[in-house]
Amino acid sequence: MATGFVKKDKQRDSWYYKATLGVDENGKRIRKKRFETKKEAQQALVDLLSATNKGDYVEPSRVFYRDYLQIGLTQKRSV
């Protein structure tokens, strides 16, 4: 289950959330994102955790579009 919290960064005068979305081969993965207000950070954290718990969240990746298409074509051919 995904968990997280909101905290104030006093040095930058901003708010951020930290969320643990699961475990990978290196241990727990933590996401962190900054916001202007506490309310924005809280809403973003709620949205992220909700999507994760529903199974709607997809981890961003740095796959090029051409590589994505190649993977899709390879998988389609094997079906």
Give a description of the structure.
The chain has about 80 residues and is of the alpha+beta class. The protein has helices at about 40-55, 65-79; strands at about 5-10, 15-25, 25-35. The chain has a 3-stranded antiparallel sheet, covered by helices on one side. A hairpin with a 4-residue loop joins strand 1 and strand 2. The protein is elongated. The two termini are about 30 Å apart.
Instruction: State the end-to-end CA separation.
Output: 32 Å
Output mean pLDDT.
Answer: 83
The rounded Rg comes to 17 Å
Largest sheet: 3 strands, antiparallel
**Strand runs, count:** 3
Order of helices and strands: EEEHH
Secondary-structure-derived class: alpha+beta
Shape field: elongated
Q: Which residues sit in consecutive blocks of at least 5 with pLDDT less than 50?
A: none
Major β-sheet strand ordering: 1-2-3
Share in β-strands: 25-35%
- Overall helicity: 25-40%
Total DSSP helices: 2
List keywords for this structure.
single chain, 3-stranded antiparallel β-sheet, 79 residues, alpha+beta, 39% helix
A few lines on this structure:
This protein is 39% helix and 34% strand.
